[in-house]
Amino acid sequence: MTPFGARLRALRDARGIRQAELAAALHVSPAYLSALEHGHRGRPSPGLVHQVNEFFGLIWDDAEELARLARQSRPRVVLDTSGLSPEATALANRLAAEIRRLPPEAVSAIAAVLDGLPREGQRPAAPRSDKSGAALSPPRAAARPAGGRRATASAGRGSGP
Description:
The protein is mainly α.
């Protein structure tokens, strides 16, 4: 399931709306909506995201959050590691091969490391510490886009190296 699919299902469930009802209102097939929710389709178009926002009456932050989730909902991702170190390329390929085996805690830990990276063009932040001198976790920043040689990581079923 993609982030957008999970949120769409949560919106439907919270309001007691069946998939067929929502599909009819959005002028899409129930099969398409099911595939979208389960991550078997690519990310939704901006127009469909807008229709979902209107159907559920989402505005401002909630509407922007749904659009952000849609942008992050590509079930098949291609990483370009050309020009990066051999270690970076090996990591991308290993992640592609092993992502299905990662427990949720490991996925969260990896995401936390990526969230702590400085944005592209920014200098890394100096390590932070509390009054006792103990190190604190790095400040949160948006993950930067990947660059380099191609390695494919897929969240879809039946994919592999």
